[in-house]
Design goal:
Strands 1, 2, 3, 4, 5, 6, 8, 9 and 10 form a nine-stranded mixed β-sheet that branches. A three-stranded mixed β-sheet has the order 7-12-11, covered by helices on one side. It is of the alpha/beta class. Helix 8 (219-233) packs across helix 11 (315-321). The protein contains 14 helices and twelve strands. The protein has a domain at 132-349: Alpha-Beta Complex (Spore Coat Polysaccharide Biosynthesis Protein SpsA, Chain A), CATH 3.90.550.
Length: 396
């Protein structure tokens, strides 16, 4: 009898402990960390739900953006590197802003060890106030643009631009969905091409050119200038495809895919060929070379800059949140940083191939392959691929 009583007591004690554990797990609320801002939610919560109600209250929405940008702390390594220090200061002070215009060059530690392109990037002072030389203020007239193709091009790339115009970049409507095209340019560092560019724009009305030197490391600046332009002149664009002038795009298929997205995704989309766990190139011979004295750590997940799509509704907020993201010379990495600051991570789509990988023509023309964008194509290849795709010459 005594033994049975002991067993009964043990069973009751066990059930009591289990019940107590369940109660604690259900009722106990994990305390919030004091340093975590109330608006810095987990990645991929739609930031528009927070920002749009504040859009007419400058102080409040900038404060909200600064709180959101605290998510970059997971990216910023503690280091004496130039970018890391600059970003830490931006995150600690609501009053500081990135992209200031400075009249005098700021002295930089170990700048002589940097490649010339990075030296020029730093000496520009992070200014994004450059005058327009050629503009298209009426490109998105009536705010009915479904997809705006914003293509980065160098002034001398006449053949590439013409190939895009004659193929996948043709301005037209797919059903009631309007597609518009602009090319984004700076100024050539070599011969003066202004007369040729003015003639080209007179024929096609699709060039946007700013008064800055068009270099590889200035692509970040080009992106920022475009966001400012789109915020002003194309606020109603449903989607924006940012890409290089050497990509081939199945525009009808992209329009079709975007048309099928649910409403939640249409307003908070950042989609492309996602790169994860990338680190800076430390080889001085690479055009992507970033010295450790400039940046320490890994890169955030980002969509390859050859071509990606994002929601037009995010345009003004991407432009504004960059006030709290120190300028970085690799444009697609910087874009990933800005999306991370908004709390959005890139969505991977297998149809976007922005690196040089072997692509069979049958893969491109077969709908089952889902290829939407491929990179590193010559003007001749773009024309040939479009002809074959349009004429359904190749079959699955």
């Amino acid at each position: 009898m005594l033994r049975c009583r002991k067993v009964m007591i043990s069973v009751i004690a066990l059930f009591t402990l289990v019940a107590l554990k369940i109660y604690i797990e259900v009722m106990y609320e994990i305390p919030k960390l004091a340093e975590r801002p109330s608006t810095a939610n987990e990645l991929n919560r739609n930031p528009l739900s927070i920002l749009e109600p504040l859009q007419d209250q400058d102080d409040l929405f900038m404060a909200a953006l600064h709180d959101m940008a605290q998510q970059l702390r997971r990216l910023v390594d503690t280091s004496d590197s130039y970018w890391n220090n600059a970003e830490q200061q931006l995150l600690e002070s609501e009053n500081m802003r990135a992209w200031p215009c400075r009249t005098a060059n700021e002295p930089f530690k170990e700048i002589t060890d940097y490649p010339e392109s990075l030296q020029i990037f730093l000496q520009n002072g992070g200014c994004r106030e450059y005058s327009l030389i050629i503009d298209q203020p009426r490109k998105c007239q009536h705010n009915k643009t479904f997809l705006l193709l914003a293509i980065k091009s160098s002034p001398q790339n006449f053949a590439q631009r013409q190939a895009v115009r004659n193929t996948w970049g043709t301005e037209r409507c797919y059903g009631e969905r309007s597609v518009k095209l602009v090319f984004l340019l700076g100024v050539a560092s070599g011969p003066d091409l202004s007369a040729l560019l003015w003639y080209e724009d007179g024929q096609y009305h699709d060039l946007i050119q700013w008064d800055f030197i068009d270099t590889f490391f200035n692509l970040t600046l080009k992106d920022q200038l475009f966001l400012g332009w789109a915020k002003k002149h194309c606020p109603g664009a449903r989607y924006i495809l940012k890409g290089d002038d050497d990509v081939f795009v199945r525009t009808p298929e992209i329009v079709k895919e975007l048309s099928l997205l649910d409403r939640q995704k249409t307003r908070a989309l950042y989609m492309g060929h996602v790169v994860t766990s990338a680190k800076p190139y430390r080889d001085p011979q690479s055009k992507y070379y970033i010295p450790h004295s400039f940046y320490a750590g890994s890169y955030p997940p980002y969509a390859g800059g050859g071509g990606y799509v994002f929601s037009g509704a995010l345009t003004p907020w991407l432009y504004q949140v960059s006030h709290f993201v120190a300028p970085f010379p690799i444009d697609d990495v910087y874009t990933g940083m800005c999306f991370m600051a908004l709390g959005l991570k890139p969505t991977s789509h297998p149809g976007f191939q922005t690196f040089e990988v072997p692509i069979k023509k049958s893969d491109l023309c077969c709908p089952k392959k889902q290829l939407l964008l491929v990179h590193k194509k010559t003007p001749q290849e773009i024309l040939q691929m479009w002809t074959e795709l349009k004429g359904h010459v190749l079959h699955c």
